[in-house]
Design brief:
The protein has 183 residues and is of the alpha+beta class. It is built from six helices and seven strands.
Length: 183
């Protein structure tokens, strides 16, 4: 039986959350959540958000501000861009193995996209980027519209105009679904 989760609250991680029981299947990511998320947050290096109920963490992501050398980008992203090109980096993403395949990763990515837009409105920024932890995740990020770059370490990027369009399409789909539910 597959459990489908309604949207979970996504909030900044705190010492109240239980990260010790979290296991996304990637030991390095689990260790990062347990040992680095709060200290990186205190030092303003990253901001970590969790999909959680009470103290239980279902999934998390971390954002950082970064930049990418212009020549590493696809030509459509280089046009009229400064060097380096500013980006919001989806630095970490993980969903607990017990809750994978239930839409939590999608909720987290969409929330991260919305946060990237907020950051761009405050400080200006051109791209949203992610560094997939392995080649097996490249197709996952492609589904959202990320494209590969020539950057080292490997990065995938999306122009913030596309992020805005993606979020608008998701909002339109939700609104249409809500309208059909109320008929």
């Amino acid at each position: 039986m597959t459990t489908v989760f309604k949207e979970l609250p996504i909030i900044t991680v705190s010492s109240d959350h239980n990260s010790e029981d979290f296991d996304c299947g990637e030991p390095a990511r689990n260790v990062w959540l347990c040992n680095r998320a709060l200290s990186n947050q205190r030092s303003d290096d990253t901001r970590t958000y969790v999909a959680a109920e009470g103290v239980e963490i279902f999934g998390f992501y971390a954002l950082a501000v970064s930049s990418i050398v212009r020549d590493a980008l696809p030509s459509s992203m280089r046009r009229n861009a400064p060097d380096p090109v500013s980006c919001v980096l989806l630095a970490q993403l993980g969903v607990d193995l017990r809750y994978q395949q239930h839409g939590i990763g999608r909720q987290l990515v969409l929330h991260a996209m919305a946060q990237a837009i907020r950051i761009a409105e405050l400080a200006g920024c051109r791209l949203f980027a992610v560094s997939p932890s392995g080649q097996n995740l490249v197709p996952y990020y492609r589904r959202y519209g990320f494209v590969e770059t020539q950057a080292t370490p490997p990065l995938m990027t999306m122009h913030l105009q596309k992020v805005r369009a993606t979020l608008a399409a998701v909002a339109d789909t939700k609104a249409a679904h809500n309208r059909s539910d109320h008929r």
